[in-house]
Amino acid sequence: MESMRKSANNIIPSSSTTLQNPEAVSHLQESIASVLSRWTGLQMAVHNQWGGHDSFEKSRKLAADIFSWLSQSKARLYVEDVENFLHECMLLTFNTDLEDGSIEEVAEELMSIHEEYLQGNQSM
């Protein structure tokens, strides 16, 4: 049975129990970092420290949480779940309520990345 850990109000399977293609894992991490670095709403929140003096660390934790969720998910992910996660994180972690459509755009990009990851991981 997979071990579990709790992160950002979500249960995420522990990475220690899943075999993964190292190249696919690296690509997933880089892709998530790239999407988040281009997300203006998140970058403004970090730059202006809307989440407090540790906003940068919080953004890194967000990236790590997304990586854990996407890399360990065995069940089908729905874009609405990703959107809800991002919205909750921005609201609770960075005191930011984005209504510019960027959460939906970022969620769509993350879903595409997840699909690519699943395809790359199946070629082990």
TrEMBL record:
Keywords: rRNA processing. One of its GO terms (biological process) is rRNA processing. It holds the Pfam family WGG. InterPro entries: Pre-rRNA_process_TSR2. Belongs to the TSR2 family. This is Uncharacterized protein LOC107423155. The lineage of its organism: Eukaryota, Viridiplantae, Streptophyta, Embryophyta, Tracheophyta. The gene is LOC107423155.
